[in-house]
Each structure stands twice: as structure tokens, then as C-alpha cells.
Amino acid sequence: MHPLAKLDHAYVWHPFTQMRDWLQREPIVILEGEGAVLRDVEGQEYLDANSSIWTNLHGHCHLTINAAVQRQLRKIAHSSALGLANEPASMLASKLVEATQASAAGGRRIADLRSGERPPAPPAPPATPHLNKVFFSDDGSTAMEVALKLAYEFARRRAPHRRPRFLSLDGAYHGDTVGAVSLGHIDLFHKAYAGLLFKSDIVMSPYCYRCPFNRAKPERADARDYRQCHWQCVGKVEQRFATAGKRDQAYAAMVVEPLIQGAAGMIPQPAGWLRRVTEIVRGHGAQLIADEVMTGFGRVGQPSCLTRSGAALALPLSGQDAGPTLFACHHEGVQPDFLTVAKGLTGGYLPMAATLTTQRVFDAFLGQYGEFKTFFHGHSYTANQLGSAAALASLEILRSKASLRDRRALEETLRDELKSLWALPNVGDIRQVGLIVGVELVRDWRTRASFDLWERAGLRVCEGMARRGVLTRPIGNVVVLMPPYCTTKPQVRLMLAALHEACKELRC
Hints:
Layout lengths: L2 H9 L7 H4 L7 E5 L2 E4 L4 E4 L2 H4 L8 H11 L13 H31 L13 E7 L2 H19 L6 E5 L8 H5 L4 H4 L10 E3 L19 H4 L5 H15 L4 E6 L3 E2 L5 E2 L4 H11 L3 E5 L12 E3 L5 E3 L23 E4 L11 E6 H5 L21 H14 L2 H18 L8 E7 L2 E9 L4 E2 L6 H11 L2 E2 L2 E2 L2 E4 L7 H16 L4
Parallel strand pairs: 3-18, 5-6, 5-7, 7-10, 10-13
Antiparallel strand pairs: 1-2, 2-3, 4-14, 8-9, 11-12, 13-14, 15-16, 16-17, 16-20, 19-20
Helix pairs in contact: 4-13, 5-13, 10-11, 14-16, 15-16
């Protein structure tokens, strides 16, 4: 065993890992990376098929981000944000606000075009918020914790007699801090901490493949494309809000991952769901918290307009265009009241997060010193200069025409190469949203019968992929593909070939 592997076994406790199993084998010890390739201490190369747990946007050892961090290191690595401001964080906050406005404008135009090509969509949500305040933190969990605390206190100050309540989706995962866990509904992750949590309400997720209201029989296609239902998933949200209102227990906010739920099993929402739900949320006077920790910064691709023939027409980036749409909620013309980002914020380089919100929320915390209306929350590394410098460089890359072309090409390559998986009997559903893919493994696609979790179907397939030089992690029985934007067509083909062969090794 390599000396570094021995040190790991002796001292490191890994996240979301059964350590008894971990200690029975020698781990892959990563030494370096370049682009979409990782190298271990033995010199073995692997393709990074999940962007180092969904964080890396542009590839490892990116020269532009490297240079930005090096320039910042020659100035200062970190100084406190408590009582002090700094250059890169101030610039980053302004760029994030700018990105949300440009992205929202592009998304609204496309959503309006869609509504002319499809059955009529609901009207645009009223009083679209303007996100202009940024609170920095360290990771996705803390970004959600900030949004939750701000929404809680904002609602409490508007109606002091009420205890603010929150609604989130079945299968929701919004982080591992206590507040974020309270918003989650995955028993495997959250049940052990029930005694620490506050209660949040749950509503059905629009999980088309396993929706009890979907009358369609399984086909060899994404379940969203052949579903037969009457939008009961949206009706359930309306029922929740209406019931809460009758009991004088109105919700302060609803929390969603827009377009696709990550840890729930890469569950995509059918087109129009988010916009319809946003209308319900706003109609009942509640706020919308968009968890874009996974989906932000172009991960869900660029919006497209479907023609009457069903062809997707990606809108080009031009001089008149407001810029690429970087956030998932903007694909449906939705601007949330709180938008949380992390993971890809720094291009996958450094832990940093941000929570964006409105002047209206900000003003609720203004007052005389003795009123103590301050937002009493913070982190030692809030607004860290190195993270801010990396994030500024990443945003610049994202807005370049070269990056936009790469993302569109990668999305199309994934879509083309995934088609081969439909021939496998243990592939039940293939769900792609932009540059995010979830492949659900089943005993038999004709019945949708699931593997039991103890059978480790997803883990076994990912272990088979690792033996073939491709690294990713499953979510239960769902294999995730989320490669860096620089991944080439030959590399995508290698990823899919490894997945194809590993799936063929499954035994029912």
C-alpha cells in the first residue's frame, strides 16, 4: 500500500462513506490534475466524470484561474470581513449581481418565446425581485443557512405573532448544517438528526419517472417526454399553500433546486413546473429560495426554444444579447427572492459561497445600533480574497464565447452518446438537464422495479467505471455524470463506454 494511502487509513474520516468498507481496500490517492484528467500517486490517469463532486467547471489546473490566484497571493490571502472591506470581494459582489440581472433578462426572453410555441404557460410571476445584496460564506450548506435565517427573520418581523414555516420538496437535500438539514427530506441522510431539527413541510417532487399520477407505461426515453398527467405535482403545491393559509400558518418561503434536484437522485422538473410553482408561491405572499449550489454557473446549459417540430434552437450569443444564462431558475424567467451559490463559484478551486437577496430583505435589518436589528451571522473566512479572485476569473471565463461554445458542444455530445444506454435492460431512465446527467438503474426497465440499496447497484457500476479509468459517484441507484466544461468529445465517449460496460456487468 502506498504510504499516503496508509496515512489516509490511519487518520482520515471521509464524508458519506462507510469507513469499514473503506478500510478494506487501498484508496485511489489523487496527486494532480489537468483539464478533465486526474492522476494518482501511481501515475494512473482517470477522467473526472463528476467534476470532483460537482465543483469543477473549467477543468483542473486552469491557467487563467491559476494566474488570478497567484496575483492575489502577491497582495494578501485573507483579511476579516468583520469591520473591513476588500478589493476582490467587493468586485465579485457587483459581478454576481450583474450576472443575475443579465441571466434573468435572457431567461425571460426565452421563456416568453417558449410560451408561444407550447401550450400556454402561466403569466410571468408578479413583482420580479431585484437581487442586489450579497452575503458571502464558505460552502453550499452555509449559503442555505444564511438564506434560511434571513427569510425566517424577515418573515418574523413582518408578522411577529407567527412562527415562520418553510416548504420543500420530497427528496430535498440542501446541506448538512442543522438549519439546512431541517429543510431536507432524505431519511437516509437526515433521520439520525431528527432530535436537533425544526420541522419543515414537504410536498411531492415532480419525479416523472416514478410519479403516481403518471399514467404512461415505461418507454426508452426520458420520462418527462412521454408522461401522461394533469400537473398534479403543481396542484399539490397549491393545496399545501391553501391549507396553510386557512390555518393561519402561511409559509415564509418555499425552497427548491431549480430545474433538477441533485442528491434526490438527479430528479429533473418538467418544463414549466418551476414557473407555475413560483406563481403559486408569490400568489400566497411567500418568498422563493433557489438553491443553485449545484445548478448555477451554466451547469444546466443554455436555454433553448423548442420549435413546432420539436427541434431545440439554442439562442446565439450576440452583441445585443444580455449574456449567457448562468442560473437554472432564469431558464423559466424566474427570479427568486434568495439565490444561493457555492461549488462552482470559484471554478472548483476554493471553498466559497454566496447568498443573494433583495433590498427589501436588506432594509429589514437596518436600524439604530441599540435596536440590535443586525444580522447576527458570519464566518471567519467570509469574503476571502483568494476565493474571490478565483471566482472573478471563473465568471470571466463563463462569459466568453469560447466557453459558451464548449458548453453547448458538451451538452450535445452527452445527448448523442447517452442514446446507446437505452439498449441496456438495467437502465430505466436517462435524465439530462444541460451538462447534468442521471442514469437510473433498475432490475427491469419494463417494470421500473428498483434494486434494493443494500445491493449497491450504483456503487458497483461506479467501481466498474473506475477500473476503466473513469471516476464518479452514484446517488443510490442513480449514476451521475457531470464532467468539466472542457471535456472533449473523445473523453465523453470514453466515459459513456465505461458506463456501458460497467452496467453490462450488473446481475439482477
